[in-house]
Structure formats: structure tokens, C-alpha cells
Structures
1.
Amino acid sequence: MNNLSKLYNTCKKSDSNFIIVVIKYLYYKIKGKAIVAHQNASIKGLKRITVDGILKVGVDYVGFSHRSDLTYLNINGHLEIKGNVSIGRGCRFDIGDQGLVKIGDGSYINPFTKVIIMHGLTIGTNCAVSWDCQFLDEDFHHLTYESKVDKDSPTIEIGNKVWIGSSVSIFKGTRVAHGCVVASNSVLKGNFPEENCLIVEAQHVLSSVM
């Protein structure tokens, strides 16, 4: 009863339809998934999601989000939730056939963030991802030229207790160490191995193909 009361208060504050949220929760529970989802949350590929804890989708309160904002999880690969995790309203997930996304306990992703993963993304425990961010590990095109050097693994790895500011873009092959803060509007591509650092990065790499 206490859990239902908490859920009711959460739904009321975030302008979520309590009855629909409960019905959807019971449906997901029958399928073996502890998922609490907003009425405008759409999940494709439910059988490819594993939840060890509770996954909240679009039900947490954020003042600028609207009840009509659609959250869409398109899971063709695998999504692994390792504990209690919140995905904000208006987020878009596209996980490709070979993609694997792992999100650790206590982490949350704020509204309107895009997660487009064809290979791999790991977000550690107790991480905070602000709004309008993007995780992308694929170019979706192939460019060849003389002396081109093949890159390392395209997977993205975010350590534990990492805070990512609003409108940050993180591209393939990026590694962020534990405890780091990524400043708003940064563009990350590469390895950031030092822990507990402030990362302010706008990387533009120009290579001649002539």
C-alpha cells in the first residue's frame, strides 16, 4: 500500500495517468520486467530488456516536460538495467541488432536525450545525464582514403558517479573515468582516463584526404 501511495504521488506530480501507469506496470510484471512507464512511453523489443531492479520510463518529474511528450525505446539488441534506473520523458533509444546498452544502479537520464547505439554503451552506477544529450557509437557511413588508420573499439564507456551536463554529445570510442563532470555543450570523442575531473571538450579533428 505504501508503494502504491508513493507511485500515486509520483504520477500526480509528473502529470502521469496513475491508472494507466499501474495497468502497464502489471503487464510488464507479467512479462517478468519491473517497469514503471508513463502513458506516452512506447517500448519495442520488451523481451530484449533485462531489469535487475526497477526501470522508470517517463514518470519522474521534470518541470519543462509535458504529459504529451513521447518516450520511445526501440530495442533490437539488448538493454540491461542493473538496479534502479530512470529514463526521462521524451528520450529516444535506438539499439541495433548487435548493440548492448548497460545502465548501472542509481543512474538517471533526463528528458529528450538520444541513445543511438549499434555496438555498445555502458553507463556506470549513480550517474546523472542531463537533458538533450546524445550518445552515438556509429557513423552510419564508410569513408576510405589512403593511410586511413582503423579506430579502436567503437563502444562508449561511462564510469561510476559521472555527471553529464545538458546538450553533451558523446561519440564512438569515448571513455570517461569515474567521478568526472562533463560540462554542458561539450563534444566528447576519445579517452578521458583521469578520475574526478572536469571535462570541457569541443573536439574538431581535420584530416586531409587529398
Note: The radius of gyration is 18 Å.
2.
Amino acid sequence: MSKTVIAVGGHIGDMELTAGPTLAKMVLEGARAIIVDCTYGERGHPTLTPTVYREQKLREGKFFADTIGAEFVALDYSDGFLPNDEAVAEQIAQIIREARPDVLITHWLKSMHRDHEYAAQAALRGVFLASIPREEEPLERHTVPSILHAENWEDMEGFEADTFVPIPDEAFELWRTGISEHAFARGETYGFRFIDYYSALMEVKGCLVGHQRACGFKTAGTEKFALAGP
């Protein structure tokens, strides 16, 4: 049976950047992948207005998803203003009940960005809400077996990877093609070389597990990721 994975990020580009290689690998192996971006990330460009950059971000997110064969969902929240409330968690719970994922990937719970923290909290709350019986909910409840926190240089407080997913060349190239469409990842917003950083990080993690490249994750709870082997 093929797997389903949902990746929940704070902004368009977050999960694409960090979990994207693993999503590409899983899709190549027959999985269904859904990227859920909680905000547009539209306030991060030094010269474009938020309205203009919002439309660009949506195009970039769709391009990435199409490139790796994933589905793309953007929740209607503004960059920097993701609420820490039940409504966001309910939206994620609905997606979980409909898609019935085997794996959920999100941010680590400590970050320099509030949207990252709130997205992670909403994702975990959504996992809980999707798992409990509710008379007003027509869809069957669903428990997500594996929850992973992606490694993000902006979310590193207390983060220590304990699960490593080898990334084959084909998945890496799909990821690089897709993420290169994102202006911020190319360093066009405030200059950080995201693509170089995460490409190098994959090689470093690969050294730890005897592969050319790997992505590191921190597991939530005791379950280990089923695709962590060769």
C-alpha cells in the first residue's frame, strides 16, 4: 500500500525547502504528498508589495508541487499574522481526515519565526482533533502514525535530528529544480543562500548514515519513520 504524507509549513516555501527532498523521494516511491502552507509568506520581499509577492509565492508553490508530483494547499492567512487558534488546527484536521496520512511533517516547535511555531502547534493540534470521535464530523477519525519535525536553520533551539532519510539523486534534482523557482531560496530577498545551505546540509547528514545525501528530522514521540532506511 502506498503512503500519504502531509507537510505543514508556516509560509509558502518552508516545507518545500526543508521537507521537499523527502517528499520528492516518497512520491517517486509511489506516495501521495500534500504540502499545506499556512500563510502566503508575502511580506518577505524588499521591493515587491505584499499583494504582488503573494501572487508570485502562489505560483512558486504550485510550481514546486507540480515539479515533484505533490498537491499544494495554501491556507488564507497573511505572513506574520497566523493566528494561534482552533480555526487553523481545524482546517488541518479536516485535511488529515480526508487524506488519512501515514506521515505528517512540520516545523520544530521552537523558532525565530512566530508563524513557524504556530504552524507546528496547529499541525499537532490538528493531528489530535483528527484522531478523536466527533459527532458533528462526517469523516472518520484518523490517527497519524508518524510525526516528524523538519530541520530548519531558523528553528534550531533544542532541535536534534534522530531520524535520517536518504535522498537519491533523482529526488534531489527534482527538489533543486522546484525550489530554484522560489525567489527567496535563490537569495533574492535578503541574501541568504538557502539552496546552497540545504544542499550542503543534505551532504553532511548523508555522511552520518553512509549515503550521498540525507535529510534529518526529529521524531515526535517514539515512532520511527518507516522510510528512514536505504
Note: Helices lie at 14-18, 20-28, 50-68, 86-99, 114-131, 169-179, 194-209.
3.
Amino acid sequence: MADFTLDLRGLGSHAHTRAYYTLKELRPGQVFEVLLDQAPEMLMEAVSLQLRHGIHWQTDAEGPPLWRLSVRRREDVEPVDLVDLLTRDHLRIDRLFASALHKVNAEDLSGAEPDFRAYVTGLRRHIQVENELIVPLLDLPRHPSGQDPTSVMLREHEQILEQTALLEGQFDEGVDAGWEVAPFFALISGALAKHEGREETNLFPHWSRALRSLPDGGTQLLARAKAILAGESRDAKAR
């Protein structure tokens, strides 16, 4: 049973704007029914991209003349594959970091520290999955110049881990004022945004195709990645 019906029929080019501003307000557990008089793929993929893939949609009735969709928040459904899991984890890590940054700016340092520590743990597990689990099994051709997407990703991982370790050291020693750590947060924030954008654009599509070519469609990799991200496994190289 849908909580809300979004009727986009007859809106033409304005359907995208209406869909974006409505679906961005989706709350956990809610289901929106979306009605369309056009095939939904291009519209919904564009809206999903704007919302950083934060929504999940499925077609319940296929037109013409009417398409009926069910739309939920992405975290309300299970990840469909390893790339879906990693995309969601980007969002989770970003939210933890943004929450810590917001609290630092508000001089709520005692509130910022737990969020920052959770970000550190999440970041390290995420990078472990990509470096130790995915790269050895789904690696792409490398270029001697080191400018191929995989080599760039690995270098950026190292840089972000180093920057994060410096900030972690500040918290270990004790932070008395927000200005002491604000430059570190600004540096990492910019690096994370660029890095995640490059990964999602340059690597995730290739990984998705490689996963589909595996005999099990990547089901075992998905299970192993989930265990690592949840802290239930440290052995990414286990077979």
C-alpha cells in the first residue's frame, strides 16, 4: 500500500522537476506510487542520479498508456549487487563525515567524535573491500603511466587514509576547539567528494559488467563484502 501517489501524467518536461522535488522528501519506510504516461527509465535514472542513487524504483504496471511505479528509499531494500552495496556505503560514510563536520563547526566536539570514529571505521572497511576483494578479482587493464582508473583509485585511497589518520591523531590527542581540526575536515571533504565521483563514474560501470559475467553473478562477492563492511570478517582474500 502506497503512502502517497505522485501523478506525473501530462507534465511533459516538467515531470522531472516535480519528481525530483517530491521524491527527495521520501522518508524511511515510505512507499510512493508514481504514475507516468511515458516510459520511466530515462526520467527515473536522471532523478536517481540527482539524489545520489538514494531511491529504489520498480515498475508495477507497464504501459502504454500508463506506467505505475513503486519508489522507496534505497536503504529500505536489499542491495541488488556489490556495486549497489558500495554506492550505498559511499552515502553512509559521507553522512557520518558530514555529521561530524557539522558538529565541529557548531563547537560540539564531544558529539563530533563518535561520528568521526564511525566514519574512520567505515572508510577503512570500504577501502579494504575495494583494494583487497574487488581489485584482485575484477581488475581492469593498467597503464604504465598510472593514470588508469584502478591505479588512480588506489592512490587516492592511500591519500585519503593518510589525511584521515592525521585527523584521527588530532582527536586522539584531544581537540579543544573546532578551528584546530577544521582544515583537516575541509581537506578530506573535498578529496572524498572527488574520489567517490570518479569511482562511481569510471569504475562502477566496469565492475557491474564484470560481476554479471561471473557464474554466480557476484553473489559470493556481495556476501563477503557485506561481512567486511559489517565488521564480521577481516579476510577479504578468503576463497
Note: Strands lie at 4-7, 31-36, 55-61, 67-73.
